Amino acid sequence: MISFLFFLGFLVFYGLIAIYAERKISAFIQDRYGPMEVGYKGLLQTFADILKLLQKEHIFTFAADKPLFAIAPTIIFVAMFAAFAVIPLSVNITGSTVATGVYYAIAIVSLDILGILMAGWGSNNKYAIIGAYRSVAQIVSYEIPLGLAVLGVIMMSGTLDLQEISMQQSIFYESATKNTESYLFGLKFLGINVGKYGGILSWNIFRMPPLIIGFVIFFITSLAESNRAPFDLPEAESELIAGFHTEYSGFRFAIIMLAEYGVMLLTSFLAVVLFLGSWSTPLPNIGALKLAEWTSGTPGSISADLWGIFWLCLKAMTLVLCQIWIRWTFPRLRVDQLMNLGWKYLTPAALIIIFIVGLWKLALL
Amino acid sequence: MTQIELYFLVSIILFCIGIMIVLIKKNGIMILMGIELMLNAANINFVAFAMKSPEAIHGIMFSLFLIVMAAAEAAVALAIILRVYRFYKTTDVDEIADLKG
Amino acid sequence: MLDAGTIAVYSFAVITVISALFVLITRHILHAAFGLLVCLLGIAGLYLLAGAEFLGVTQLLVYAGGILVLIIFGIMLTNRADGKTIKAGNHRVIPGILAGLAIFLLFTQIYSQSSFRDSLRSTDNNIPLMGHPVESLGVEIMTRYLLPFELIAVILLVILVGSLFISKKENDTN
Question: Which keywords does this chain's UniProt record carry (chain B) (predicted)?
Fold first, then answer.
């Protein structure tokens, strides 16, 4: 319940911040000022925009399939938001304790495709339907490398439960139920158990170095999943106006935009939980400097919650910042280049990573 | 009614609706949907029997394999429907009555 | 008696049945596909409440995220998007309904005559719901069910190649 309320509030707050940040960063990259009029340096610009969207009329085009058109934004948003249920916030706040956590998250996000198809078909507009086709083709193809990249982590940790995966990467590793020994770079013969040092050394990408490439694959596919540049073909504004949400207006448009930014946040959270140490601190214990213990709080108390949420959100926000930065740096791919990248490079690479992780775990760990 | 019996009832109703869809609808894709409903009805039965005993994991395994087979079946059926549509310009099963295409 | 779990089971059952009926009744084929979506989600909920967590999530991923998308793509590709709503016609309505009802009666009769009915009735409420842990599923797949598992992988490959071959364009020489 706590995590539900937290994510609902955080998502709205994040939406406001992220849209403002996106505008300011794009302005910085393109050597402009960005929004400057409303509030100090345009800080209130997003609020003004939301206010404008809420007041607008809901326009149904004459030939639209009204039930599909009306319900599609809800499905897109619900599919995205339901996945937040399994994300752990700290050592105490576990979210929904399902044993199939990460599998559930990937499955429920894939429902988003159906919402997009409904929106595209319901609009009865050629740009919308082309955008929906492209979006679905892209999400379905990139789900495969995404799932395979996640599979590497699951093989390494031996569980699907996100809280369990988080535990293994923190200095509280002794309360994890399995696989509690983690060695530096996954090399057992060095004999350095990084669990008690904690910090960055016990993150999955350092416990199992091949996962660094796995993380890169996950990050690239997460860009495609959230339909962002360089994979923003579904809503390529120079060709398709706005893709599947061309015909939407007012509050429904706001919901679709919030869902798009929500998918960015969700994939960032998942990347952090799976690869970058979840809610654990990045600072290791160095000799007498117990940095990891000082910045983790004590389990069961409010200090652990605050530190956990702080680190988790900080890492996720850094990834979101990277996504925005990439969007305004790279040009858009063509459809064939997109499919080439997904099927001919990312999928085989992810398979090889799984193979290497398996061998590494058998031979060295 | 116990939980298992409720599952049986849902399964029977779904199966009958699936049969009716297959018999009544003209469109090839609707018939495919009816078949999916019947497969799901069978799956619910397996799950219902596996529900109350820890040893009965076979039911779950059978359902898992059945889901995979359903996916494969849907892929082939849709490929055939696409092919038929390209040839006859319709997916209405009543109009696809010619032998020797 | 009416705890939250029971209410959830009944509501999922009702959702499943009503949406399946909607698929049967509606004449709009794309609406039927989305009725099927609700039906599949309801079935996934039933699986979760039966302790088959992994199966429920698989149902979500494969049926709702895979098969249904395929079906909707099929609908969109086989119907000209000329602005008209797509109707799915009916034929043989009365015999079809009669056949469905006959099968319903047959199955309920079989169940009420069955030998396991009384044992299920008498013990059902006393036995706690047993979940099947994900680990045991994984172990079973890799030990006792290894042969079917490998076979299904081969079948999937055959299906992939076969459906590509069937659906490719005729004048496509590659």
Answer: Cell membrane, Membrane, NAD, Oxidoreductase, Quinone, Translocase, Transmembrane, Transmembrane helix, Transport
Task: Report d(CA A40, CA A47) in Å as an integer.
Answer: 13
> Which ipTM score applies to this complex?
0.86
Dump pLDDT digits (tens) for C40-98: 999 998 888 888 888 888 888 888 888 888 888 888 877 765 545 566 677 788 888 88
Judged by CB atoms closer than 8 Å, whether chains meet at B92 and C129 is answered as no
pTM of the predicted model as reported, rounded to 2 decimal places: 0.85
**Mean pLDDT computed over every residue of chain A:** 81
Question: Which residues of C are less than 8 Å from A113 in CB distance?
Answer: 65, 69
Report the distance separating Cα A65 and Cα B49, nearest Å.
42
Collapsing DSSP states into helix, strand and coil, what is residue C132? coil
Domains of chain C: 4-132 (1.20.120.1200), 133-174 (no CATH)
Pick from A95, C144, C52: nearest CA to B46:
C52
Taking an 8 Å cut-off on Cβ atoms, the answer to whether A68 and C30 are in contact is yes
Min distance A292 CA to chain C CA atoms (Å):
32
Angle (CA) C32-C35-C39 rounded to 5° is 135
Q: What angle do CA A172, A173, A174 make, to 5 degrees?
A: 90
**Nearest of A105, A130, A108, A107 to residue A119 by alpha carbon:** A130
Give dist(CA A123, CA A63) in Å, integer.
Answer: 8
DSSP reduced 3-state for B92: strand
Mean pLDDT, to the nearest integer, of C129-152? 83
